[in-house]
Amino acid sequence: MFYINAGAKSPGIHYTILNCILEKEHGKMKIKGLETYVATQRLETPFYFSQFGFSARQTCLVKVIAEDGSYGWGEGYGPASVIRAGIEFLAPLVIGEDPLHVEAIWSKMHLRSLDYARRGVLVAALSAIDIALWDLRGKLLGQPVSILLGGQRREKVKVYATGMYFVETEDLVGKLVEEAREYASQGFQALKMKIGLGVETDLRHAQALRQALGDDVELMVDANHAYSLAEAISFARQAAGLNISFFEEPVSPEDYEGYRELRQRSAIPIAGGECEYLLAGFRQLLSNRCVDIAQPDICAAGGLTETKRIATLASAFQTNLIPHSWGTGIAFAAGLHLVSTLDPVPGRLRMPEAMLEMDRSENPLRDKLTTPQFEVVDGRVAVPTAPGLGVDVDPDYLDEFCKDE
Ligand SMILES: [Mg+2]
Q: How far is the CA of 53 from the centre of ligand 1 (A)?
């Protein structure tokens, strides 16, 4: 028997508390409640990519709290207020459960939402709760999430810097080159730039970056599905000499046939999957031979529970996984733990190195909300060793970023 008290507020913060009063069961820890937070911060320099622009960063966090006061943090990727509504829908299924039974809770949430959410933000809500449960479970067991996921294959993860977004300026090429040089000087050995403004413009930008960086820095391009198949084929053909490591989201995520044809005709490896959801979605992407690199977002594709399964499926298709990551330190920590457990394909003595996306575009939430901050040394970041995800949320910044909600 439990009672749900939705819509509770504390001064200065608008968040929802789903609380319950439980009949105590001896020896079993129960989940007592969930809190959701929508954090927002305006940007100093608005930027855009091939689809739309950003003048602020916003994210939805969830805190899952156990009876003893211990808690775990999770984060959803996508429209924050919609994800918060999704978490409120799923919360009654989670409250009262034993937080150690993460995959069982995942199944319960999945079966309750499947009729409405084979894709989309309700899966992102489920993902946020799942990540928080892994964090909580790790804290309760005194183990980092990477150990619970099966154990580390590496203590540090290679990261690539995502940036080179578009801004309103007289000299966009100059801005892109300057930014790329800055990341290289910080030790990043791989960078990803945005394309999708048009094939000729994109080629000019990519050529400028390759020339500025030399051949020692890996360069990737991301069209965010702005191209038609013909444009994507044209770009891949003309960019073949630029030593591009992968061509991300060339065409619409709905166009599996287009992906497949492009992959057959492109000398540049094809990447995609940040708009794909759940194991069944990735089965479609992989069985259609759409991509060389699968890029699930842990905060959207089904959490750590499902992304681990997606990684296993991808390995069966001899496809590497490089997760998409565009959130706060919670999302990034989840990525570090997962990637630390992966075996890249093909297996060999000197394996290809596993990699994770590290967004460097302006994001005060990422830079302030969680502690500790992650340090890039020689293009790599150490996997946290503290129990759970190994990151916590700064309560003062949480107050500040949630004050308008
Ligand atoms: Mg992308």
A: 14
| Strand runs labelled E in 340-382 | 355-359, 370-371, 380-382
Q: Is 245 helix (H, G, I), strand (E, B) or coil?
A: strand
- The pLDDT tens digits of the residues spanning 68-104 come to 999 999 999 999 999 999 999 999 999 999 999 999 9
Q: Which of 142, 171, 204 delimits the end of a domain?
A: 142
Is residue 295 a contact partner of residue 286, using CB atoms and an 8 Å limit? no
Q: Domain of residue 29: give its range.
A: 16-142
Output the CA–CA distances (angstroms, integers) from residue 330 to 24, 59, 308, 390, 398, in the order listed.
31, 11, 17, 9, 13
CA of 233 to the centre of ligand 1 (A): 18
244 CA → ligand 1 middle, Å: 15
Task: Give a yes or no: residue 103 inside a domain.
Answer: yes
My answer on whether 337 and 225 are in the same domain is yes
Interval between CA 161 and ligand 1 midpoint (Å): 12
Among residues 110, 205, 225, 324, which one is catalytic? 324
Q: pTM of the predicted model, to two decimals?
A: 0.93
Q: Is 7 among the domain residues?
A: no
Domain boundary at 119, 142, 165, which? 142
Query: How far is the centre of ligand 1, averaged over its atoms, from the C-alpha of 349 (Å)?
Result: 30
Return the closest-CA partner of residue 265 out of 239, 304, 293. Answer: 239
Do 79 and 162 belong to one domain?
A: no
Please report, for the domain that includes residue 234, its CATH number.
3.20.20.120
Contact 327, 292 (CB under 8 A): no
Q: For ligand 1, a single-atom ion, which residues have Cβ within 5 Å?
A: 222
Torsions phi, psi for 310 (to 5 deg) = -60, -40
pLDDT in tens, 234-258: 999 999 999 999 999 999 999 999 9
How many whole angstroms from 249 Cα to the centroid of ligand 1? Answer: 6
The answer to whether residue 62 is domain-embedded is yes
Query: Structurally, how many domains does the chain consist of?
Result: 2
Q: Is 324 a catalytic residue?
A: yes
pLDDT digits (tens, 9 = 90+) for 155-191: 999 999 999 999 999 999 999 999 999 999 999 999 9
Q: What is the mean pLDDT of residues 351-358?
A: 93
Check whether residue 138 and residue 264 sit in a common domain.
no
pLDDT at 385: 98
CA distance 39 to 254: 30
